[in-house]
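Per reviewer request, we include the raw input and output of the structure prediction for the construct analysed in the revised manuscript.
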Amino acid sequence: MKTSGGIGTSRVEAFSDGVLAIIITLLVLEIKIPELHDPTSLEEALRALFHLMPRFIGFLLSFAFVAVFWINHHRFFTLVPRVDWALLWLNNLLLLFLCFIPFPTGFIGENPRNPIALILFAFAFMSAGIVFNCMWRYAHRNGLVSEQVPDELIHKAIRRGLIGPVLYFLGGMMSFVLPVLSWILYGVVPILYGMPQRFVSKED
């Protein structure tokens, strides 16, 4: 659907939804089924599952973050009814960083205390958060946000969007000192952004 000052968002949303669905599917593929020397051994099976715990936790963190990202991405395009070429490419840049997520997720699952693995994990999510924040700023600055959306709501979304990147940056830095704190900070972000926010639809 054409709109003044840009083009409709339906194809952008459909493409983004498809990419995010694939990303979430790829996350679980990083958890490999353990090979047991004795297929009937209860002790060996439990020990193998215990060793997979970092992978399960990494999967849950990444799944939660991508799911929350999908919710906020959907919310963004409910409040932004049109796009231009620059916003299209910002959205593609966002998808680029999100597509990278399965790699650091598998990396920290295999090396849960390694600073490089934890920093790489933080980099992927921090970069995605920064780009998403840039999308908000660009849409607001270029008049792509629905006229029914108050400026206060936009400024709140922009400010709130900086919290995640800051926490991921701190988590990455803490990986050299206390890796467990990095994991805790990473877990706070999807909880924070998963909280319901004030919502305004295109039809309001």
